[in-house]
Specification:
Elements lengths: L2 E6 L10 H20 L3 E8 L4 H10 L3 H18 L6 E4 L3 H16 L3 E11 L4 E2 L5 E4 L8 E2 L16 E5 L7 E11 L5 H10 L5 H12 L7 E2 L1 E2 L8 E2 L2 E2 L7 E2 L1 H19 L8 H4 L8 E8 L3 H14 L9 E5 L2 E3 L2 E2 L10 H7 L2 H10 L7 E3 L1 H31 L11 H22 L3 H22 L1 H4 L4 H22 L4 H10 L41 H10 L6
Parallel strand pairs: 1-2, 1-15, 2-3, 15-16, 17-19
Antiparallel strand pairs: 4-5, 4-9, 6-7, 6-8, 9-10, 11-14, 12-13, 17-18
Helix pairs in contact: 2-3, 4-7, 5-6, 6-9, 7-9, 11-12, 12-14, 12-16, 13-14, 14-16, 16-17
Length: about 575
């Protein structure tokens, strides 16, 4: 049994997340967590809301409430929506927790003791109209690199370049829209990342198994132009973790807070601390997941994120961990994703463009969304959501293949034998051939899941479902029953064993459907177990026996009509419309 630490990029607190946010981090992380648990490994799947910085302040201003109250409310909203999407977090914390405050300050102190922090006098944009400094997302303007006109003051979401607000062309205040901005002197703490460049490069190059998108973005920011730059870790804001040293204001940094991208990744660790407390574990339990000298050297750590998060997780956060001088566990694998676009354009939380998690659940069950998003995960290139594609995937993959198999089998059996698997003969050549065919595809499926090759995995899973349909069509129990009841009963028993097998291997993708199938088979209280390739594969299909009871399933999935798909495309119109 291995110990698997899984974190997904923290969702910003500023509103309900859209489908692009979901597929870019939390959903594939949940897929992997479910897979690893089913294989019998010890899993810690952790996440938290990212509550500091300008997004939180701006959203609170818009909602006419205090930032603290806004964050508390939105944390609960995001937690509830995550549960409705069956995201199986072991703990869903908050970056504003007291443990994250303490840990962030401790990291800053260690970095300072190790000579990796410096105080820098700089000029920052100040708005006379707003009577305040405008850090990060309080400013928008044109990116100096790619000319994207709505680049933020901390990063261009179009080309992923990390920015300083003063670099933007034609900057304006997000609060007032004013372009009457001037550069005024202020002072900030900088993390001297440049001193750690060689260590970071050695570490990145040692991970040659990372996805291309992860490595290419990391090396781009490490090597391009002037190379890795020192980065400010403080801000002139009121909401955040106060910049303090030994419980007192840090000299020269009074009334400042730590930069959100300094404290947010640290929340992975503080969430582990809070998780351990919630489980009443030993006070040092969390250290066994995070500190190599406390047992974390045997932990396999995997992070999931969209490509705009990669620079922070491959450079800034590792620089913080390495620079602290302690034996922190560094990530073993970073699964980076491209963008999911919406009907030809960008999803956008700030512009409320696309389909958001709460809206999605009002339209269709969570498994519909999980299946489409994961089977179209933007792994090697951007992927585009359209209602036509969504309709086709649900109808053809879920309804016509898996749903059709389960419905035909249970309805036929119930109509002829009632709610009990009838007595029949032993498996014959047809069943053994189907098992051999399934085993061959399952080996590829298992390999793709281990490698987190999600789209490949869905294609293999779909193929396995299809083999079940093909078997049922060839064996035709509805014909056999007229002349040989025992042969028909054999087909039925094998079919029900296929159903159980499908529920177990489909659970990481469509957990609600998997639970429904297991309930039908009287197995709802049994924990999913991933089939072992070390055992006799035929034995996997002996778990349902003659005389076992079942419940009939009418329809696992309801098809989406052309008219409804067109109506949704109009209602949620995107760029192509």
């Amino acid at each position: 049994m291995k110990r698997i630490l899984i974190t997904s990029a923290l969702p910003y607190i500023n509103g309900i997340k859209h489908l692009g946010n979901l597929v870019g981090s939390q959903l594939p992380a949940d897929l992997y967590a479910r897979f690893m648990r089913a294989k019998g490994h010890e899993v810690a799947f952790l996440c938290a809301t990212d509550e500091h910085g300008t997004p939180a302040e701006l959203a609170a201003i818009e909602s006419k409430t205090s930032t603290e109250d806004y964050c508390r409310k939105m944390w609960q909203t995001q937690k509830d929506l995550s549960a409705q999407f069956f995201l199986s977090f072991d703990f869903f914390g908050r970056s504003s927790s007291s443990s994250n405050h303490a840990l962030t300050k401790a990291f800053a102190l260690n970095l300072d003791d190790n000579g990796l922090l410096k105080s820098v006098n700089e000029r920052q944009l100040y708005s006379a109209k707003d009577k305040r400094f405008l850090p990060d997302r309080y400013v928008i303007g044109t990116c100096p690199d790619c000319s994207y006109e709505r680049a933020r003051g901390d990063q261009c979401e179009n080309c992923t370049r990390q920015l300083h607000a003063s670099e933007l062309i034609k900057p304006s205040s997000v609060l007032s829209g004013s372009q009457d901005l001037e550069l005024i002197k202020t002072k900030h703490l900088y993390l001297m990342q440049s001193k750690l460049k060689e260590k970071l490069l050695t570490w990145i190059e040692s991970n040659d198994h990372w996805p291309k998108i992860t490595t290419s973005i990391a090396k781009k920011w490490l090597m391009d132009g002037d190379g890795l730059q020192d980065r400010s870790i403080t801000r002139d804001l009121s909401w955040g973790i106060p910049v303090e040293k030994n419980g007192k204001p840090w000299k020269g940094m009074e009334n400042k807070v730590f930069y959100v991208w300094f404290d947010a990744p640290i929340a992975y660790i503080s969430a582990t601390i809070d998780w351990a407390k919630s489980k009443k574990k030993h006070p040092d339990f969390w250290k066994s997941w995070w500190l190599n000298d406390h047992g974390a050297e045997d932990v396999h750590y995997v992070q999931f994120m969209a490509k705009d998060n990669i620079p922070f997780h491959t450079l800034s956060f590792p620089a913080t961990l390495i620079g602290s001088g302690q034996s922190w566990k560094l990530v073993d694998y970073i699964k980076g994703f491209n963008w999911l676009t919406y009907d030809g354009g960008k999803f956008s939380t700030s512009q409320k463009r696309g389909v958001f998690m709460n809206q999605a659940l009002e339209l269709f069950p969570s498994d519909y969304w999980r299946w489409w998003l994961l089977s179209n995960a933007p792994e090697t290139s951007d992927a585009d959501f359209t209602w036509r594609s969504f309709q086709s995937s649900i109808n053809k993959d879920l309804a016509d293949v898996l749903g059709n198999f389960v419905s035909r089998l249970t309805k036929f059996t119930f109509s002829k034998f009632g709610a009990t698997i009838p007595n029949g003969s032993r498996y014959g050549e047809q069943e053994l051939n189907a098992i051999r065919e399934i085993e061959k595809v399952f080996i590829s499926y298992d390999d793709a899941m281990n490698k987190i090759e999600i789209r490949k995995a869905t294609s293999y899973l779909r193929k396995i479902w299809s083999i079940g349909n093909e078997y049922l069509q060839r064996s035709q129990p509805w014909v056999k029953i007229k002349t040989d009841t025992a042969e028909a009963a054999k087909t039925i028993r094998f079919g029900f064993n296929l159903m159980l097998f499908f529920s177990e291997i489909s659970e990481p993708f469509i957990p609600s459907t998997s639970n429904e199938i297991k309930y039908c088979l009287g197995k709802s209280n049994e924990k999913s177990q991933w089939p072992s390739l070390k055992e006799d594969f035929t034995s996997i299909f002996e778990k349902i026996d003659y005389g076992d009871d079942f419940k009939q399933i009418e329809n696992l999935f309801v098809k989406i009509s052309n008219d409804y798909a067109l109506d949704l495309a109009k209602r949620f119109s995107g760029t192509n419309n």
